[in-house]
Amino acid sequence: MKGGRGALIGALTVALAVVGVTTVVAGGRPDRTPGPAGATTAPGGDESRLVLISGRDDHGLVATARVALYGHPGDREPVAQAKDGTLARVVSTEGTWLQVRAVGDASVHGWVDDFYLRGTVHLVGPGPTCRVRIGGQLLAAGEQAVVLDVRGTQAKVRIVRSGRYGWVARSTVRELAPGSGCGRPTASASPKARESERHSHRHG
User: Fold this and answer.
1) Angle at CA 38, nearest 5°, toward 32 and 39?
2) Number of helices and strands (H, E) in the chain?
3) 124, 132, 140: which is closest to 177 by C-alpha?
4) Does pLDDT of 150 surpass 70?
C-alpha cells in the first residue's frame, strides 16, 4: 500500500513539473539567446529601433556636421551633439520628437526631431563595385536596408527589397546610395523618393 502511494506521489510530482515547464514555454517569453560580449541589445517593441542621425539636406549635402540633441522635446539649448551618420537607438517617442542614444557612446543622447533621423539606409561597399556581401550573396551597390542591431564592427540588417536578414560591415551602412559608376554618393533619384526615405522610420 505504501509502495503504491509513493508511486502515485512520484507520478504527480513529475506531472506538475511538466505542467510548470509547459506554462513557462507557452507564456510567450521572447527568445533572448545571449550574444557575444559587448553586444548592443534593447527591449523589444517599437522603441528599440536603430536610426541614422543625419545632418544632410534633401540634396544629400551636409547642412550640419553635428546634429543638436536636447534634454526635452522643444528645448532650445542642446545638451549634446551627434555626428552626421551616427547610428542611434530609439529610447522613447513623443510626437515627432524621439529620444535617442548613440550606439557605442552612451554620453551622446537626447531628444531630436524626426526630421534628422533616417529609418532606412543604403549599403555601400568599397570600390570599384561598392557591392556588399551578406552571407554568400553579393548585393547591388546601395541596396536599401533597415539596421536591426550592432555588435562591434558588424551590423545586422534587413534588406528592404528581399526581406533577407544578415550581418554586414558597419562601415557599409550609409545614408546615401553611391552615384553612377560607384563614385560620389548622391541623394535618391527623385524628390518623392527622398521624402519617402526621410520619414521611412515612421512606417518601419
Assistant:
1) 40
2) 2, 16
3) 124
4) yes
Burial class (CB in 10 A: 0-12, 13-18, 19+), 36: exposed
Q: Which residues pair with 109 in a beta bridge?
A: 101
Please list the residues that pair with 62 across neighbouring strands.
Answer: 56
The H or E element that residue 1 is part of is none
* Count of residues in the chain: 204
Give the CA angle between residues 170, 172, 177 to the nearest 5°. Answer: 145
Gap between the Cα atoms of 54 and 119, Å rounded: 11
Query: How far is residue 154 from each of residues 18, 97, 100, 104, 171, measured CA to CA in Å?
Result: 40, 28, 20, 12, 8
For range 60-77, the mean pLDDT: 96
| Residue found by looking up cell 535618391 in the block | 188
Residue 25 Cα distances to 15, 22, 31, 170, angstroms? 15, 5, 10, 35
What share of the chain in percent tops pLDDT 70?
Answer: 66
Task: Give the rounded percent of residues in the chain with a pLDDT score beyond 90.
Answer: 60
Q: Which residues have CB under 8 Å from 189's CB, separation 6+?
A: none
Q: How large is the average pLDDT for residues 19-47?
A: 33
**Which three three-digit cell numbers place residue 100?**
535617442
